[in-house]
Amino acid sequence: MIVVAGADLDGLNVSASGYVSGVVENGGKCTFAFTRPEHRVESSRDAVANVADTTCGFVQLPIDQFTKGTWQVVLTYTSGNLTLTSPPTDLEIP
Question: I want to staple 54 with a disulfide (CB 3.0 to 4.6 A). Which of 20, 26, 78, 81 is the partner?
């Protein structure tokens, strides 16, 4: 599940955060994929077990990697044979 995704107020970066519900484990990988037609930007990080879920933490990418307009961000969690993908979330790059 994506908690937050959008352009930072200072206009310098695009940030996203999320977690995996129903899974509590270390060692998985979280990948945030930002897409729009003919463009894709990704950032991955290690997942960390929390009390009731697995956190994917926070990613921040320079806004110059993005073009203006509407993007979709999807969070994918992989661990062993398990792959979970969030529903897409829209974000606007000003």
Answer: 20
3-class state of residue 45 by DSSP:
strand
Q: How far apart are CA 93 and CA 80, in angstroms?
A: 34
Query: 28-83, pLDDT tens digit by residue?
Result: 999 999 999 999 999 999 999 999 999 999 999 999 999 999 999 999 999 999 99
Token pair 């969030």 is found at 86
β-pair partners for 30: 45, 77
Please name every residue paired with 1 in a beta bridge, in sequence order, or none if there are none: none
User: What strand order describes the sheet that includes 2-7?
Assistant: 2-7, 13-21, 53-62, 48-49
Distance in angstroms (rounded) separating the CA atoms of residues 91 and 37: 14
Give φ, ψ of 65 to 5 degrees: -80, -5
- Give how far Cα 78 sits from Cα of 8, 14, 32, 67, Å: 27, 23, 12, 28
